[in-house]
Design brief:
This protein is an alpha+beta fold. It is built from ten helices and four strands. The radius of gyration is 19 Å and the shape is globular.
């Protein structure tokens, strides 16, 4: 079992010990996956953001209350109500369906919001690039676009094709593993993106870099490297901390 740790300082060791007690007394795989995801690095950063309405960095009181209930694993299903887009589908207590429903267009809007927020961060960090790149560029004429954002001269002179994907630690296909290993769902999403995009990126001379994040805020390993240790020496997390703070509660 791989549990997240806070560090070696005394307060951190106390936190780790308290977390282990809570985790060991949690019997539900879904709640175990939730605990591992919410305790991952940066996952709780949205709680410390300064509410700034003109930058769309705020939640109304009812939204914040619901977000806290969801974050803490409290029942968000509102007495067994059904999905407004899928009336035959009852909402579950942990809010998994509400966050992963493919109907209504919310998943596309949220994916694009994440892409656009990152793109604004790149511009503030003086990093040039291109949005939605790759369609029809290779010799086979493939219409796929492996780069939500294409950044030039990223690694060894090759452009980076950044492809965002948002997944859930509560997905049935990865729940068993996610309940014992922090970030497993995000890692699995990275693998899926590599399978889908590596071949075309190789033909174009690009480096495929999936940027995966779980709905509870746990970032994938490759995303973490891009956000905090840019090979160009421009750590985007320091340039625009709001990138890690303003986006949660989403899946595409």
């Amino acid at each position: 079992m791989l549990l997240p740790t806070k560090g070696n300082c005394h307060p951190c060791m106390i936190e780790d010990h308290q977390f282990k007690i809570i985790f060991d007394h949690t019997s539900s795989p879904a709640n175990c996956a939730r605990l591992l995801s919410v305790s991952s690095p940066h996952a709780s950063a949205w709680l410390s953001v300064m509410p700034t309405p003109h930058k769309n960095l705020h939640l109304d009181p009812p939204e914040f209350q619901m977000a806290l209930k969801w974050w803490l694993g409290l029942d968000t299903s509102q007495n067994g109500s059904s999905c407004s887009f899928c009336p035959s589908h009852a909402l579950d207590p942990l809010g998994h369906h509400a966050l992963t429903c493919k109907s209504g267009g919310d998943s596309i809007f949220r994916h694009n919001s994440l892409r656009d927020t990152f793109w604004e961060s790149c511009k503030l960090a003086c990093i040039a690039g291109q949005i939605e790149a790759g369609s029809g560029l290779d010799v086979e004429g493939s219409r796929t676009r492996p780069a939500d954002i294409l950044l030039p001269n990223w690694e060894f002179g090759k452009p980076a094709a950044l492809d965002f994907t948002i997944t859930s630690a509560l997905n049935p296909s990865t729940l068993n593993e996610a309940s014992v290993m922090a970030g497993f769902a995000a890692s699995a999403a990275e693998v899926r993106k590599h399978v889908a995009n590596d071949e075309k990126c190789s033909r174009l001379g690009w480096v495929c870099i999936p940027l995966s994040v779980e709905t509870y805020g746990c970032w994938g390993e490759e995303a973490g490297s891009v956000l905090t240790d840019s090979p160009r020496g421009l750590p985007l997390e320091q340039a625009v901390p709001s990138l890690l703070r303003c986006l949660s509660f989403m899946e595409d």
